[in-house]
Amino acid sequence: MANPAKLTVRTIVGNNALAWPAADTIDTTGTVPVVAADMGGEADRVALLVTARGAVSARVAAGDLPPAVRQPLGDLSLPLASALAASVLINPAGANNDVLYTANVAGSQGNQLSVQYIDPGLPSQSLWVDVFERHAIRVHLATGAGGAITSTAAEVIAAVNAHWFAGHLVTAANGAGSSGAAAVTAVAETSLAGGADMDATHAALTTALAGDNNDIIWTAAVGGAAGNDITIAYVDPGAEDEALAVTVTENAIEVSLETSPEVAASVETELTGEDNDLVFTAVTPGAAGNSITITYTDPAGNDQSLDVTVVGTDINVSLATGSGGAITSTAAEVLAAVNADGEAKLLVLASLPDGATGAGVVTAMSETALTGGDDGGAITSTAADIITEVASTPAAAALVSGANAAANDGTGVVTAMAATALTGGADLMALYGPFESARFVQDNGDLNINFEILNGEADVICFRLPRG
Predict the structure, then answer these.
(1) pTM confidence score
(2) In Å, how far are 191, 286, 292, 311, 352 from 264, measured between CA atoms?
(3) DSSP, res 419
C-alpha cells in the first residue's frame, strides 16, 4: 500500500453526460497501460478516493471498450458514504403483496424514478416490464382467462429485477412482513422518494449581537472546507438615510446597513377654540430643531398690532387686540406674520393642519418647543431585512443562506459586526473500491476507468494499489 501509483486527478462537474473528455468522466484510456500480469491471479487493485465539494452523487461506470470477460463481474455502481437511496413501498390492498423498490444508486437522482402497475384490461395476458423515458418502470400485469390479475408480488419482484434496465435502476424486494405470495393490483405511477446526495459539512456562523431577535445563522451554500473562507460583515455607513445593500468581493460578503433619515422638528398647537391651530416645522432637519420654541403673548393692551420677534431660537408672537383689549389675531394671520418675518422664517415654516382654514382666533400660549427632530443615521435594518437582501443578491446567495437563529423572530434591529468567518466546514471523503484492475481492462489492453458525477462537484484521485 505504500506509495500507490496515482493514475489521475481531475476536478469534476456533473453534466449528465458520460463521454470522454466530458468533465464528468475520469478516463485513463491510452495513458495507463496494463501489464500482462494484471490479468492473472495477482492482478493489481484500483481504488477511487472522492472528496465531495458539497452535495454529490456518483457511480463507477463501465469503460468505453468493455471486454466480454468483464460482463459477469456485476454492477460497479456503489453508494457513497452519507448518500441515501430513494425508495418507495408499493402496497396494494390485501396482505402479502407489498413490494419495496430501492434505487440502486444512492443520491437525489433516484427521486426521479417511478413504478406503475398496469392492468392490461384483457384476458390471458403475460407479465412483462418496460422502462419509459429511462426512469418510469411500468409493470404490465398478467391476467387469467377471465381478465383478473394473477401476478403475485413475488412474480413482479422477479420480473423487475430480471429486466435488463429496470433491474439496473432499482432492486425490488418483499415489503416488511410480506411473503409476496398474494396477487397485486393496478397501481398508479408512484415516485421513489427520500434520495439524498452525500454532502460535505457546511460551514456556518451564528451571530451574537447586542439586542433581541436580531441574530442569524449563516450557512455556506456548498459544503466543504472552502466554506470556512467565507466572511460576513455588517457595516454602519455612518451617514443618514442610507439604503440596505449587499456587496460581494470573492468570498467576503459586506452588508451595508440601512440608516434612518434626518427628521425636522415640529409642533402642532392645541389651543382652546375652533380652527385656530397651526403646525410649526423646523426649516432645517435635525435634532437642532428641538431647541426652537414658539410663544403666543397677550400684550394686555387695547388696539395692539400683531408682531413677531426672535431671540436666538425663541420665536415670540405678540398677538393683536381690539379696542376692548381682547385678542383678535386669527391662526391665518399668525401664519402669515411668522412666514413673513425675516428671522422667524429662517427657523420655522408655519402651516395649517389638514382641513383647517385658520379663521379661528388664537389664544395666548406659553413657550412651546418643537420636538421630534433627529439627525438620522441610526441603524434600522432588522435581521429579517438582511436575510431577504442577501437572498436577493445572487452573488451572496451563491455563497450563503440565512435563517433566524433559535429563539429569534428576525424583528430586531442589528448592530454593526466586523468581518467574521464561517467555521466548521469540512470536505467529505469516500472510498470506492478497491476493485480488481481486470474489471477495467479494455479490448485494447488499456486500463479505462469512467467515474460519473451525477450531481454536484468533487475531486477524485484514482490509485493503483499493488497487492501485498
Answers:
(1) 0.62
(2) 63, 5, 11, 20, 17
(3) E
